[in-house]
Amino acid sequence: MALRYLGGSYKVGQAAVKGGSKTAAAAVPAGKYIADVATNYQPQFGNLGASAALSPNVFILICMLSTAYMAHFNAPKFFIELKDNTIKRYNTVVGTSFGISIFLFALIGALGFLTFGSASSGLILNNYAATDGLMSLSRFAVTISIIFSFPLVFVGARDGWLDLLKVPMEKRTDSVLTKTTVAILSGITLIATQLKELAFIMSFAGATLGNALIYVYPALMFRAAVKKMGDKASKGLKREVPFAMFSALLGVGMGAIGTKMAFGLL
User: Fold this and answer.
1) What angle separates helix 58-66 from helix 198-205, to the nearest 10 degrees?
2) What is the tens place of the pLDDT at every residue in 36-55?
3) Is the pTM of this model over 0.85?
4) Per the CB 3.0–4.6 Å rule, which of 45, 51, 70, 256 could disulfide with 117?
5) Digit-coded pLDDT (tens) for 149-171
């Protein structure tokens, strides 16, 4: 993405602008691959500048960002499987992993927007030409990544469903797990055949599940834990409860607005 942006491979060409007897602006040649990109995916840039960040549409981005770290259900598993699993070592793993993730997400998001602007697709690879060999290689790499990372997320989802259905561990036989897997995958596949707009899926998931996991549930759990401690809870913990609940309300508000904006993408 950096090579394509810096190399101008997807720039929209512009004719020279003449002013009197002189050329006011030189012609800008079209990028190498721009002719092979569908019209709705070609770069589009406005003139709103930083004021565009005040648009309600920014909640779509916020909700998408909320899906970036929805791996809470795997946290206990990673801690248990960590060698010499002390809290200090676990914090190092989490801090390093999140730091690298933040850098990559920010870099990819920035390069995609700088290249295509408001025409950026929910799946940014859609914007790149099919004739672009380098980006075709990227598509293949993403496919491999999804295939091998999907089981990590799916196991958490399957176990969550079994927990909701209150299926005890001793009854989670291979047969039960297989049937549950087939049932959930069938439902996911059916939904996938109907929903083609990835931006909607990301923003809706972020507005609902993402905000719930990041803002709402932790705050409710913290309040319940402090309440259960009773008089043993320190004054600092008790003072922190209102701030936690404000965070929960903030998450609900952002979720409601984000959900409304997400449906606008359909």
Assistant:
1) 70
2) 888 889 998 877 777 777 77
3) no
4) 45
5) 888 778 878 888 888 888 888 88
